[in-house]
Amino acid sequence: MAKKTTTIPTILVTNDDGITAPGIKALIEVAQQFGKVIVVAPDSPQSGMGHAITIGKPLRLHEVHIYPGVEAYQCSGTPVDCVKLATDILFKGGHPTLCISGINHGSNASINVIYSGTMSAAMEASIEGIPSIGFSLLNYDFDADFTTAQFVAKQIIEKLLGQKKIPHLLYNVNIPDLPISHLKGIKYCRQAKAKWDENFVVRDDPHNKKYYWLTGEFVNLDKGKDTDIYALENGYASIVPVQYDLTAYKNFDKQKQFWDSKQKSK
Amino acid sequence: MAKKTTTIPTILVTNDDGITAPGIKALIEVAQQFGKVIVVAPDSPQSGMGHAITIGKPLRLHEVHIYPGVEAYQCSGTPVDCVKLATDILFKGGHPTLCISGINHGSNASINVIYSGTMSAAMEASIEGIPSIGFSLLNYDFDADFTTAQFVAKQIIEKLLGQKKIPHLLYNVNIPDLPISHLKGIKYCRQAKAKWDENFVVRDDPHNKKYYWLTGEFVNLDKGKDTDIYALENGYASIVPVQYDLTAYKNFDKQKQFWDSKQKSK
After folding, report:
1. Minimum Cα–Cα distance from A169: chain B residue
2. Torsion sign, CA atoms A148, A149, A151, A152
3. How far is B18 from chain A (nearest CA, A)?
4. Nearest CA to CA, how far is B187 from chain A (Å)?
5. I want to staple B77 with a disulfide (CB 3.0 to 4.6 A). Which of A47, A264, B59, B181 is the partner?
6. Which residues from A are below 8 Å from B50, CB to CB?
7. Which CATH number fits the domain A10-192+223-243, given the four candidates 3.90.78.10, 1.10.10.10, 3.40.1210.10, 3.30.310.50?
């Protein structure tokens, strides 16, 4: 885990909505209150990219001067590519103190975490050993009000940077779309069990060929009051500790017996 | 969990290397021994796509006749898109008995699980409640020998379909690149802790502009003998039960105290 240093923190900021999105601007403003900010973000929107990486083609990385006083780069790849390029090329293996991703335009609570470029960027940084947080606001609008999200992000970053050792490497933070006066606090939660019910729109294109466009409805399958969805529905911001060991440890030993039992060959 | 039925199983086959890859052909051959096979796979290679989905543009889905006697569709989207289209459009909410993904040309053991389109397709099916397995062979060559991988896949599918209730919804299976005579068996494992050390190749393009191309080295950080990497290095195929609840439950309660302690506002 990263040790607290007395030197000024270096904060890597990224996102999946692209470097010009209002959400990343809001997050940069928060980050600037805590240390030196370096931005590496996609040059175009990359929502829903999950943990995609670019293998089969080269990437571009260009310095841009769009945020006064902030070193910023746009990258032609995915959010995870941005973090990989930042750590290998810009930090050359030396790590930033913290990586923050977002503020995403829309929820990354519950099952959204696995589709989310915002969270995958944060996860990639955590794999590198960099403490990381993804922030998402429950409002998909381009011109959403990020004031409450900034308020929450500031509290969480302050709390983490105030520790001698940051207690965990990766967090998923979601913020309800409420004014600060209506926010009840920040709740530590587990990921709610949920899924998307797909409902593709099927239409004919101008050349009479069929196309399919993804739409769907979020279905919460979890009645727990300790979940991120419950917290968000009840006026709290949610913070979920996230891991990238995907092993299903529940019933692991029982299943081991099943798999270790005599294997037939045919 | 899916109940065993006396009717013939329906098996959805997908992958991330594309519908024409030898690996999916090998898996289709195995699947045909167990039931009715429906293939929905990307129309082009999609390695490293992770859990990416296509939101901002429409998808195409075309029936193709490349595998004699097999209903097969190529899709313009990601591996996860293929599964979403299959469940919503082709199965119309009715589920296949099993979804199998692969056989991937290359390892998806350890941390590779989060970058893998093969495993993300299987995970998406499991979110839908469909028992799913991703298969990967530790050989990246186009013309790799899939005989041992087919042998392992057959054993595992047979064992699962032989149960009254399939005991878990999602497995990551990796097969060492060995002849059957050298394979020691199938080991039930946990995901090894590992990472990729990035090393981007940086070059100038023909127009004197810099480009960056991802390369890297796999670094196993885990000395455990109960991991997938250990099993594979010692001549076993590995099977890891996988989950998509990414909550880090280790030290959850201790961390809860930390986060529930008085939150300062500024």
Report:
1. B248
2. positive
3. 14
4. 7
5. B59
6. 49-53, 80, 120
7. 3.40.1210.10
| Angle at the Cα of A96 from the Cα atoms of B262 and A185, rounded to 5 degrees | 20
For B187, which residue in chain A has the nearest alpha carbon?
Answer: A260
How far is B36 from chain A, CA to nearest CA, in Å? 20
Nearest to A248 among B45, B242, B254 (CB): B242
Radius of gyration of chain B (CA): 20
Q: Report the residue of chain A nearest B92, measured CA to CA.
A: A199
The single-letter code of the amino acid at B27 is: L
Predicted TM-score (pTM) of the model is 0.93
CB atoms within 10 A of CB B186: 20
The kind and range of the H/E element at A72 are: strand A71-75
Cα distance between residue B65 and residue B55, in whole Å = 28
Report how far residue A198's alpha carbon sits from residue B90's, in angstroms, rounded to the nearest whole number: 12
Q: Which residues of B touch A265 (CB under 8 A)?
A: 151, 155
Chain B residues with CB-CB distance to A193 below 8 A = 245
Residue A167 structure tokens: 């207690």
Q: Tell me the C-alpha distance between B180 and B192, whole Å.
A: 24
C-alpha radius of gyration, chain A, whole number = 20
- Per-position pLDDT tens, chain A of length 266: 454 446 899 999 999 999 999 999 999 999 999 999 999 999 999 988 999 999 999 999 999 999 999 999 999 999 999 999 999 999 987 899 999 999 999 999 999 999 999 999 999 999 999 999 999 999 999 999 999 999 999 999 999 999 988 888 999 999 999 999 999 999 999 999 999 998 999 999 999 999 999 999 999 999 999 999 999 999 999 999 999 999 999 889 988 988 887 654 44
Residue type for position B4: K
Q: Which two tokens stand for residue A236?
A: 């709290």
To the question of domain B10-193+224-260 being in CATH 2.60.40.10, the answer is no
Indicate the domain borders of chain B.
Answer: 10-193+224-260
